[in-house]
Amino acid sequence: MANENKKESRVWYAVRLFLTMLKIGAFTFGGGYAMIAILENEFVSKKQWIDKDEFMDMVALAESTPGPIAINSATYLGYKKAGIIGSAMATSGVVLPSFVIIYLISLFFERFMGLEYVGYAFAGIKVAVIYLIGAAGIKLLKGMKKNTMTVTLISLTVVALVVLSLLAVRFSTILYILVGGVVGTCVYLIHIIRKKEVTK
User: Fold this and answer.
1) What Å distances lie between residue 74 and 19, 100, 168, CA to CA?
2) How far is 18 from 91, CA to CA, in rounded Å?
3) What pLDDT shows up at residue 1?
4) How far apart, in whole angstroms, are the C-alpha atoms of residue 102 and residue 113?
5) Residue in 10, 17, 13, 61 with CA at minimum distance from that of residue 42
6) Do 43 and 55 touch, CB atoms closer than 8 A?
7) pTM, rounded to two decimals
8) Do the Cβ atoms of 56 and 142 come closer than 8 Å?
9) 63-86 pLDDT, tens per residue?
10) How far is residue 165's CA from residue 191's CA, in Å, rounded to a whole number?
């Protein structure tokens, strides 16, 4: 009986995840980064399925693994709440609206883009996307634990981004992620070694 209830609750969570991700996927413009603020609002503030710390970890994990951040986040959330069926439903929900819309647009792309009102709409959407990405970045920054390592890494990353942009030097953002991961791992290992030395 307990197993049946557990299965039912997983299926119920999976359906809720699918519907929520379908809504987010259908009404979020600007890709995964623009989606971060909406995901946080939906799953941390409203539903409270995960806390802020876990959300930050999820975003870091989703960004540092292959694939789009929105899909990786959906898969993580789905698995967390309803196992494999949840990850499949959440991922399907976030992908389906984009797939359908892009497929329909592709059928008459040239005529669609040639419409004057479509051009105006996309110009407005671009502005909104910049805001959504900026808002997501500020929220993540506020929610992040402030310590010497994180503040130093953020400062160095921002300086590097600005300097390299001004000098027109192309530098892959993947390297920033890898360097951040390596530094974080090294700091963690040093912390463990120091703890062991203190306990001896």
Assistant:
1) 12, 18, 35
2) 8
3) 45
4) 12
5) 17
6) yes
7) 0.61
8) no
9) 777 778 888 888 888 888 888 888
10) 34
